[in-house]
Amino acid sequence: MSEYKVQFEVFEGPLDLLLYLIKKEEVDIYEVNLTKLATQFIEYVDLMRQFDLEVAGEFLVMASTLMYIKSRELLPVDQQVVVEVEDEGEDPRWELIRQLVEYKKFKDAAASLQTLEERQENVFPRLPGKMEFQSEAEPAKPEVGIFDLLNAVNAVLRRFQEKTSGQREIYEDKWTVSEKMEFVLKTITERATVRFSELFERAANRAEVVCTFLAVLELIRLKQLACVQPEPFAEIEVSKAIAPAEPMEVVASASEAGVQSEEKSVALPPETTAAEAEEEVEDEEEYDDDDDDDDEDEDGEEEEADNEEQKPK
Amino acid sequence: MELKYILESLLFSAQKPMSVKELRDIFANAASEENAAEEAKAFKKIKEDDLVPALEQLAAEHEAAARSYRLACVAGAWQFVTQPEFSPWLRALVGVKNRPSRLSQAALETLAIIAYRQPVTRAEVEQVRGVNVDGTMQTILERGLVEQSGRAEVVGRPALYSTTPLFLEYFGLRGLEDLPAADELRRIPIEKPVAPVTADAGLATVPPEQLRLDEAPAKPEETPASPSEPAEAS
Q1: Same CATH fold, B105-187 and B3-83?
Q2: Is-above-0.90 flag for pTM?
Q3: Chain A within 8 Å of B96 (Cβ-Cβ)?
């Protein structure tokens, strides 16, 4: 009896139990005597009850199917036909055998999966370490954040602040961001790295500085520019982004960038007063915010820069 | 330079299993480098279809050499792995491999049915196993071995389940065609025998003599009036 108890725990369902019973009989599934099997199956279900095991509904369904098959056998052959074809169209015996064969195949497949599982547990992949000689490239320089850039441009703007204190000058506003982008791209193509302040050396006034700065920001957003600080507190250096862009692509995206910024400046005519240009500045930056979350806080910082600038006036 | 040995060097040094596509990209990149060697340029236009036979040949060579490691393709990616029999020492080397507990019999059966019959609904799995599979499905879904892959276009639109790439990795399989006895179990319905194998399909006991009709005396299964004949012919 206790031997049976152990077996019950292993059965995965009525089909499993049936397969076990067939195996015990040592016959082929196709040749099994279902009538005899039905008797044994029901004995087991009874046994499960005796052990107070919860008899799952599936076992009862199977027991009733087997009882049905068994009851059919009691009828003369010709009477079976009538019941059979009209009711289900499929011989329940065949249906059960088919189900058993199918289940048996998957049970075997599960066994081979288990073998694979155990095998794979003992397989170790080769995981080579990182190759050290690859890092001959210069050590990565600290990345420059948006605040570093704003501080740098603030320093540039201070130059004009001192000049213009006391009086106001009105300039013809003839710079556009797209022009400046071309200028910056040309400068960094000619020379590998350019100091940040060099980009603003020839700027005549505040609006031009703002325009150039926007061009720099836009190029960073388009991943055309890289800004690095060689060491803490050193001046920011601007260089071409190390993106895996081939020369052809750079040209393509540069012109594309030009188109983009031109589209943007359609909203405001390129020739605007300095004040309007500043408004444009902010618009542009808001536009950036939409595209790129990295540029967050930009507006706030720029306003601060503006405020600082307004104070002495 | 022979292709298979280039591949061997790449897989020897690779940090992770390499798919054929990744390997092809490496060939393309090596050829398009500035001042690339002539030899590298020769393989610039190599196709994935050319790489697979080379990889297989390489794997066969390693297998034939009976080394402690072999070249394996798991879930479509190639890598060098050790042979299982060396695991006692490797386990000591890398520490205990942090592997989740083994799958239960029920989980393995359910997985097998999904693997061979995918995409498959829960009801179809239950039909084959003859039991409710809610619990086991939950387990293998949580383990990431199967995933919901869509819905069947039948009444109620039940979810369809398929195995994941992790399933292939877990069992060290190259692909679904690599499953044991795949051609037999995948999709092919179980053939109904043309004629019953035994005297009467599934019924070894002969009905009692007195219940039998006169027309069907000795061999009931051969008579045209036999009950099982019409059903099985259809």
Answers
A1: yes
A2: no
A3: no
